[in-house]
């Protein structure tokens, strides 16, 4: 099972000081968080894609490429790549390039985003959101898997004899998670292709997340990719920890109350009860996270949001120390002990490459003597 952190890259005023970092400081802070995540033994660093204030990560490949040069182990992911407003040709080439630079430590989370105005900014119509997600991803898969592509669709100009460059590293495209919080069509899309499904459930009650994941698992099995409990599932989460749980609540409350997304709404206590937000001691975070398995089954990836709402970088790095030293080792052990042997690990470039090589070997095995054709003569 993979554990990591994701960032939305917001530039938010610290409510305890009344000051905000600059865009340059926030961008460099995200790099520092990625480096710290690798240092403390996490598996994944993921960043969103946004094109509107107060968010800064408008070019994930630029930042992830920079991080790739400074790391050696951690998987670099998006959270999300906007499959609706990005050209699939550009996605195919940008992320194949990143894949080469990072020696395969790359995957993507495809999504439609949560900012309606982004569609006209990039020449699209939000009313075509689902159609764009379906058509663009179908083309992207072909661009990564076919050396020469002839294609015609509804939302962009046709392609004739087109080859995306560079080709995916080792002939293996990056693994794709489809991220959605409310669209069953996206869960269906993930299941159809046998890809991963990531539910960023940080704003949603258990019952809603459960329905989405159960739909994905059922359709994954329907399309013949394996049993429902072998589907590849990822979950979001949000934590803030201190040794004493009341200290954590007192410190985090002003950030929660003024956060750009959920601030000035429900109380911290109500929000924590209804969503995965856990503010307390490391043991409370461990117990809450382990409970996810009871609701959603065995799953492959857990990402935590830890740098939102104006939290100072120093505080975020302290949180990562606690996560890496006190929380994740226990979660790894407990989840592994309960997971049945037939439930797969999270895909990596190495595992995908090995699977592709096995498939190629099977294709080249000669027909054995005494085959059906021979013996029927």
TrEMBL record:
Molecular function GO terms recorded: monooxygenase activity; oxidoreductase activity, acting on paired donors, with incorporation or reduction of molecular oxygen
Residue ranges constituting the Luciferase-like domain according to the UniProt record: 1-295
Region Disordered, annotated ranges: 341-377
GO cellular component: cytosol
Keywords, comma-separated and alphabetical: Monooxygenase, Oxidoreductase
Protein name: LLM class flavin-dependent oxidoreductase
Source organism of the structure: Kribbella pittospori
């Amino acid at each position: 099972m993979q554990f990591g952190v994701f960032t939305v890259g917001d530039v938010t005023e610290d409510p305890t000081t009344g000051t905000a970092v600059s865009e340059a400081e926030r961008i460099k802070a995200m790099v520092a968080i990625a480096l710290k995540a690798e240092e403390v033994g996490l598996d994944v660093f993921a960043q969103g894609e946004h094109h509107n204030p107060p968010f800064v990560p408008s070019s994930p490949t630029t930042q992830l490429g920079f991080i790739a040069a400074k790391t050696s182990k951690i998987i670099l992911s998006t959270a999300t790549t906007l499959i609706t407003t990005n050209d699939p040709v550009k996605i195919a080439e940008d992320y194949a390039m990143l894949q080469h630079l990072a020696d395969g430590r790359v995957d993507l989370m495809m999504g439609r985003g949560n900012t309606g105005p982004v569609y006209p900014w990039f020449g699209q119509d939000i009313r075509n959101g689902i159609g764009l997600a379906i058509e663009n991803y179908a083309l992207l898969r072909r661009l990564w898997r076919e050396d020469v592509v002839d294609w015609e669709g509804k939302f962009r100009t046709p392609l004739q004899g087109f080859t995306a460059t560079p080709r995916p590293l080792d002939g293996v495209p990056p693994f794709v998670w489809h991220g959605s919080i409310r669209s069953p069509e996206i869960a269906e899309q993930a299941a159809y292709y046998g890809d991963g499904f990531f539910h960023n459930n940080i704003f949603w009650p258990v019952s809603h997340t459960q329905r989405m994941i159960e739909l994905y698992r059922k359709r994954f099995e329907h399309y013949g990719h394996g049993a429902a409990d072998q589907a590849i599932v990822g979950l979001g989460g949000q934590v803030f920890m201190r040794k004493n749980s009341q200290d954590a609540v007192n410190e985090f409350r002003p950030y929660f109350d003024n956060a750009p997304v959920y601030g000035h709404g429900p109380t911290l206590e109500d929000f924590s009860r209804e969503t995965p937000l856990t503010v307390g001691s490391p043991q409370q975070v461990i117990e809450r996270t382990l409970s996810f398995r009871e609701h959603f089954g065995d799953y492959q990836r857990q990402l935590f949001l830890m740098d939102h709402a104006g939290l100072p970088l120093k505080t975020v790095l302290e949180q990562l120390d606690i996560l890496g030293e006190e929380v994740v080792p226990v979660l790894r052990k407990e989840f592994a002990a309960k997971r049945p042997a037939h439930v797969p690990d999270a895909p990596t470039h190495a595992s995908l490459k090995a699977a592709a090589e096995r498939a190629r070997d099977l294709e080249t095995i000669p027909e054995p003597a005494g085959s059906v054709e021979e013996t029927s003569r």
